[in-house]
What does this fold into?
Amino acid sequence: MTTKPFEQHLYDKYDNLGKQALLSYLEQEGHTVKNIKENYFADIVTEKDGREFYSEAEVRASWKGPWPRSWSELRLPGRKVRLLREYDEVTFFVFRDDCLECFIVESKELTKDRLKTAHGPNIRPGELFFHIPVNKVKLIQFKNGKWN
It folds into this structure.
């Protein structure tokens, strides 16, 4: 599978920002953090009501301001399939560049038929993405100190 090369400067800029926003949401929802150590798998492992949850944060640098109505789908990199192989369920959190909005994507939405190539200035030819209709994901916003 063709993938975009790892870019350390983008990781350094957005990784902690996304994880902190995700932690604030999970803690608000009553989750207890079990693991946030970098291990190439889920960014954050939590527990709630005796059940373990696996969450992955991503900050979409190109998403600035409210989600454009013309963007009918959310795209997640195909390389995230490694998480689907590791866990029965994993939840993906795709944050706006300032982390004031976020799409919550359940792993059931990352289906084989949605894995397709995409085109764009930062996408390598042949790179695969999950193309997920925005009506299949949940949008949350951070307002007045809490997630709604």
Summary: The chain has a mean pLDDT of 93.
